[in-house]
Amino acid sequence: MHSDNRLVLVLSILVTALAVTSLTVGTESIDYSRAIADQFTDPDATHAIILREIRLPRVLIAVIVGASLGLCGAALQGLLQNPLASPGLIGSASGAALGAVSVLYFSNAIWHTQLIPVAGMAGSLLATLLVYLLAGRSAGITTLILAGVAVNALATALLSLLLNLAPSPYAVQELVLWTLGDLTDRTLKDLWLLLPCTVLGWSMLIGIGQQLNTLTLGETTSTSLGVNVHRLRWRVFIAVALCVGAAVAVAGMIGFIGLVVPHLLRSLVKHEPARLLPVSALGGSAMLLAADLGVRLIPTNQTLKVGVLTALVGAPFFFYLIVRSRRQYEG
Amino acid sequence: MNETSVQVQQEQETPRLIGSNLSYRINKTDILKNVSIRAMPGELIGLIGPNGAGKSTLLSLLAGLATCSAGSISFDGKLIDDFNTASRAQTIGWLEQIGEIHWPLTVHRLVSLGRYPHLTTWQKFSEADELAVQRALEQTDSAHLSDRDAMTLSGGERARVLMARVLAAEPSLLLADEPVSSLDLGHQLQTMDVLRKFASAKRACIVVLHDLSLAARYCDRLYMLNQGELKAEGNAATVLSNENIREVFGVEVIAGCDVIPWIVPHKLVSKVN
Q1: Which residue range is the domain that position A304 belongs to?
Q2: B273, part of any domain
Q3: Which residues are B164's β-sheet partners?
Q4: Nearest CB partner across the interface for A210, out of B100, B106, B116
Q5: Is the pLDDT at B89 greater than 90, yes or no?
Q6: From CA A96, how far away is CA A243, in angstroms rounded?
Q7: Would the CB atoms of B109 and A221 count as touching at under 8 Å?
Q8: B120 contact A CB<8A
């Protein structure tokens, strides 16, 4: 663990730098020192409000959602001993999206803000439960992943159905934009909606590192070493459902962070699943902050959505990682 | 004087491991039928039999990794089901037939995973843990591989490293499933010596072997399984009779004993069922 201190420090500095930079970017240019001072003396000043209620929530949400996605990706990859595992693969992200979009589609607009997060988390948990029921109690890794892919496919199909049947082009646009992943116009209220489930999910993942490490030897050997693999699966799956459900409910579907960030950092922690967890959380924060800066700085006619950018950058980067690992193992 | 020596004698006679009338049934197929097995302190037990005889199943039952349909298993007089997970893992070491390695950890790190049963969640790796790992690496002649990427090892190196992993846990009972199958001649003898030495410290070891000569030479007693049933048990001379081998393996062997016992397969014959 000791050897990771430097990496953790570097990533923390990166996250802090990106967060501070992100606070300075926006349509309105504000005087920082005044805005900070005003928090105490004149909290109703325009600059103070912009900083406190527009920019700060956006940055904090990016930090938390990014950390959740990175952490969940690393936990799932360790659990399933599979570098392709991610919150997207086991259906929790699309389940959450389906839950949230259903609310947009079926319910009265007045209830949206309260219902969307709840429906997102419920969707995510339901998708996870369905994966589990499909795979069965003593499922092998492949069955579990197949079940995840199947549930993911169903959730995506239902999402498409809702888009297809949407009553007006305006509704379609609202639904689509929402599934792209977005951090604009988030408020402190969104932050409070995000926090409880996220913190609960994170705390469930504390202390599983050594168990994930033993899974390097396969599930049966891990069991012989005293790990209750079945219980560990539940723990990780529910934690991921909570974290990703909350994240998707507040920020929409943001892909590739959970997949790419652990990949990027794995060799820096000597491929050890336990050591990958904290650094992936920091790496996820950094990546989402950077992407959110990107969508504001890259000039486009329509506002670019952050989920689109992470996928655009993430996918080619993933190509590169595959080619690199191919070279590594095929000599 | 006499009484105490009798008592010592009796204590030594208490088996460490007792598996009584074990049966295992899955999907309406009997994998094991009424097999009993025991290991005395210091004994190296060989488990032999053709493919699909139930050897690996028996080992995983004894390791507590699967639950038998009938019968009972106890270690040092305590039922295996009554062990809590941690103490079971500390007591029983189980070495998989084809071990998995999923991430390219260094060999040293991989072997260190064997210490998991002795560590609580946030406990740091102590000097004693590190010593156990070093000892295990040296015993299996893999200390020089310490810094190698475990995924790039050859089959034999991998088998030795995984043996080191199970030895690092310092169990009282070692269950090893074909640990020498992929090893060269020298490392076969070396690994058997390690198992012999392991057992001799009043511990117990059950090893699945396909090399009957090694089984005859190293093991104190043998259990021969065939189609889920115990065919024979006892010393090598009794179990590895030409009749038993012909009946169970369908092979005619040439055997002898000059310096060491040797058994060489000669030709296939039809199995007597």
Answers
A1: 2-330
A2: no
A3: none
A4: B116
A5: yes
A6: 10
A7: no
A8: no
Residue B46 CB contacts under 8 Å (≥ 6 apart), including other chains: B206, B207, B208, B209, B215, B218, B219, B221, B222, B223
Q: Is B196 left (phi over 0), alpha (psi -120 to 50) or beta?
A: alpha
Query: How many domains is chain B built from?
Result: 1
**pLDDT (0 to 100) of residue A1:** 45
Please report how the helices A141-164 and A112-135 are oriented relative to each other, as an axis angle in degrees rounded to 10. Answer: 140
3-state secondary structure B83-113: CCHHHHHHHEEEECCCCCCCCCCEHHHHHHH
**Does residue B101 sit at the A interface (CB-CB below 8 Å)?**
yes
Residue A320 is part of a domain; what is its CATH number? 1.10.3470.10
> Domain tally for chain A?
1
B82 falls within a domain:
yes
The residue range of the domain holding B153 is 2-268
Number of A/B CB contacts below 8 angstroms equals 71
pLDDT in tens, A201-253: 999 999 999 999 999 999 999 999 999 999 999 999 999 999 999 999 889 88
Q: What are the chain B neighbours of A207 within 8 Å (beta carbons)? A: 121-122
What ipTM did this prediction achieve?
Answer: 0.90
Contact criterion met (CB < 8 Å) for A210 and B121 = yes
**Which is more confidently placed, A100 or A211?**
A211
Nearest CA in chain A to B168: A225
- Would the pTM count as exceeding 0.80? yes
| Burial (CB count within 10 angstroms: exposed 0-12, middle 13-18, buried 19+), residue A314 | buried
Mutate one of A82, A217, A268, A269 to test the B interface: name it (highest B CB count within 10 A): A217
Substitution target from A221, A235, A270 for chain B, most B beta carbons within 10 A: A221
CATH number at residue B32: 3.40.50.300
